[in-house]
Specification:
Blueprint lengths: L14 E5 L19 H10 L4 E5 L4 E6 L3 H8 L5 E5 L2 E5 L22 E2 L4 E5 L6 H13 L22 E5 L2 E7 H4 L16 E6 L11 H11 L5 E4 L4 E6 L3 H14 L2
Antiparallel strand pairs: 1-3, 2-3, 4-5, 6-10, 7-9, 7-10, 8-9, 10-12, 11-12
């Protein structure tokens, strides 16, 4: 319904959503574990088969977006580890490799993926949800934060690796469930009794991947972060955007995360 505009960029691919469930149920609970739990079984194998993914963590669960044209490769890659279903008319129908054999591409010889630079701003973030029926009470404030409360644009060519702060606000509405990521200072502007978070009320720090916009054709970007964090059993909340990828980790673990990623960078040289 959005009219064509010179101000709006649209990626040329159509994407499909994969949702990983356990024993037929989606993970529940307030503690975000994110890509850590699915890194070894989903993200890394897809990267090895040259499938580019977009990752979207929410307060409730995690979603992996793959390009529609890559679906045969995705199913062949994951069928050995998972029972795969597609949704048809609201019903879950089993999918087998035979259903998508046409067009399946054999994996190319493995190439060393590009390890992109990572930045870790000092900004502290909150991962929140809000009950849909209370959304009107904060709608005006949401609009102000989303569209009017922006920091001045950074100067062109300013690619400092040590960001003091970063402007980041994420709002998602998926099947009635709302997830919000905002910095701790912005959270103070909202009524505290309407925003729900984990019982510990923990704060998160960000690792942003990429020194310039990443595009959608390269694979292994999510795996660059997810694989070492999964090996160290560190929780992560991951959000891919049009330009960059962002991983949120518990504040008390940021030093270990930076060390792990630096070691990975150095070992690849």
């Amino acid at each position: 319904e959005l009219p064509p505009s010179e101000f709006m960029q649209v990626a040329d691919s159509t994407w499909l959503v994969l949702s990983v469930v356990s024993n037929g149920r989606e993970p529940s609970g307030c503690q975000a574990t994110g890509v850590t739990k699915i890194a070894r079984s989903v993200i890394v194998p897809l990267a090895e088969h040259h499938v580019s993914v977009l990752m979207l963590s929410t307060y409730q669960t995690d979603f992996i977006l793959v390009r529609e044209r890559d679906l045969p490769v995705v199913i062949h890659t994951l069928a050995g580890e998972f029972d795969i279903y597609k949704e048809e008319g609201g019903e879950c129908v089993p999918v087998t490799c035979d259903d998508v054999s046409n067009g399946f591409l054999k994996p190319k010889p493995a190439a060393s993926p590009t390890l992109h630079p990572v930045q870790s701003p000092q900004t502290r973030f909150c991962v929140l949800t809000v009950a849909p029926d209370t959304l009107p009470a904060i709608a005006t404030m949401l609009i102000d934060v989303l569209f009017y409360s922006h920091s001045p644009p950074r100067e062109a060519g300013d690619s400092s690796q040590d960001l003091d702060s970063i402007t980041f606000f994420a709002f998602s509405l998926i099947e009635g469930y709302i997830s919000i990521v905002m910095d701790a200072e912005t959270q103070k502007r909202f009524p505290s009794d309407l925003l729900l978070t984990s019982s510990t009320g923990e704060l998160w720090r960000m690792v942003r991947i990429g020194g310039q916009p990443l595009g959608f054709d390269e694979c292994g970007i999510v795996a660059q972060i997810a694989e070492p964090l999964a090996a160290a059993d560190i929780s992560a909340y991951y959000i891919s955007t049009f330009n960059f990828d962002h991983a949120l980790v518990p504040e008390e673990g940021i030093a270990e995360v930076i060390q792990l990623l630096q070691q990975r960078q150095e070992s690849s040289r």
